[in-house]
């Protein structure tokens, strides 16, 4: 990927909107993608307890921002 704010980061951030972690997967960060997806999926599955749903929404937003502001070490 190129630098922060590049077109690749924008695409990765857009990929995160429907599926948390997909943007990190597009960027080649497998562990981050798995963690974001699992935490959001569990939180959204427990939406009826209210707090896990709110935490999942915050993590989902974090995943989008993380993909948009990612800087590679290359």
Low-confidence region ranges? none
H-E order: HHHH
Major sheet size, sense and barrel closure: none
Tally the helices: what do you get?
4
Number of E-state strands: 0
Rg over alpha carbons: 12 Å
Rounded mean pLDDT is: 89
Distance between the termini: 8 Å
Determine the fraction of residues in helical runs and give it as a percent range: 55-70%
Number of domains: 1
The portion of residues forming beta strands comes to under 5%
Q: Shape from CA axes? A: elongated
SSE topology sketch:
Blueprint: H1 7-16, H2 22-26, H3 30-45, H4 51-68
Helix pairs in contact: 1-4, 3-4
Care to give the gist of this entry?
With about 70 residues, the chain is mainly alpha-helical. About 65% of the residues lie in helices and about 0% in strands. The chain has one domain (about 5-70).
């Amino acid at each position: 990927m190129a630098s922060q704010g590049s077109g690749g980061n924008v695409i990765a951030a857009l990929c995160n909107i429907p599926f948390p972690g997909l943007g990190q997967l597009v960027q080649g960060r497998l562990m981050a993608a798995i963690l974001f997806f699992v935490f959001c999926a569990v939180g959204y599955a427990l939406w009826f307890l209210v707090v896990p749903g709110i935490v999942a929404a915050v993590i989902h937003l974090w995943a989008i921002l993380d993909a948009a502001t990612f800087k590679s070490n290359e």
